[in-house]
Specification:
alpha/beta, 5-stranded mixed beta sheet, 15 helices, about 40% helix, about 15% strand, globular, kinase, transferase
Amino acid sequence: MVRTLLGLSVSSGLEGVDATAVRVEGLGLDLTTRVVAAPRIAFPPAVRDVLRASVASPTAVPPEFLRAVADTVVFAARQALSKAAVSPRDTFAAGILEPTRPAASVPIDWPEVAERVAEQTGITTLHGFTDRDRATGGSGRPITAAADFLLFRDTTESRLLIHLGAASTVLFVPAGGTVSTAFGFEAGPGNQLLDAILFNGTRGKELPASVGKHAVQGRCLEPLLARWAEHPHLTRTPPKTVHAEAFGRSFLLAAFDAVRQLNASLPDLLCTATHLAARAIGSAGRLPVMKPDGPRRVVLSGGGVRNGFLWQLVAKQFSDSAERAEAVGVPALSRNAAAAAVLTALTCDGVAGNLPVLTGATGGRLLGHICPGDGRNWARCAAWLADQTGEYPRANRAA
């Protein structure tokens, strides 16, 4: 049976909402996937400004802010279905992948947003995929690893997936392997650090899209980069995740102090931080566990692909062989949204969506909270769930 699922996520730079319509065939870990539409809908300027300011300094927001966020998410969902030529009535379910960084302090009630999506589209909507993993002792990251495996696997070609998001994440998918052979972790800092440097260095006057433009005008401060290379996260053995404060406010303040002592500029600091992100990715990609016996394809996704300078530095780490995720059928900017759709399918199929060996959880679990859609859609989803989860204990086995 072919099903159409909807995936939704917020871009790492908090500029807008990514939506994908994904057609899946099969069940569980035997799914084959195809992304058929992937629009990005920008937040209204007022919403975007509140989001960016909240990351730097959490603050209360008026009720109309949440309504504007929810309206943008709903509009993005409808746009994806329209581009895929699929009606909401023919959509199986939807999933929302909430940002964990840099938006941990952003005052958005994601359960309410999910309820609004279900209410206004009539589609059963899942959210909170990381919650169950964390409840079993996991970090909740990388929560998309199993979904990424299904989206990017290939029978003849090994792939190293690099996601340039809030943090930089690497995932190795061996040719013809099973989901248990995939290995990945958060290599180091990503867009969160670069955006924070630009935001604080320009006092909010520059948008994240201009990070690369400023960084390429600077010079790499090698003494500072060498000091950063000894950061505890970078010297830890994987699997690992970037702690919320690892490259947070304290790191940022120390970085600006170092730049003043070196009589350097904001472009110099951005250039150095970009080199740090690229070298962390390169070091991760050179680990023996990330190298197959045969050829390996390096695929980049995430908001960082728009940063030409970061792209250039990452490509150099892999002999200039990196390419965008579009080359293997997944829009680079919509990888998280596509993963949200696949995680939704796994939960509906009664299959654990987390990989405990990567997140640290005590076992595999069904992920997500369910917001029922209209009567017709929910009846179909409920019947499907009941049929696929008849042998419930298998949902607690690691994927």
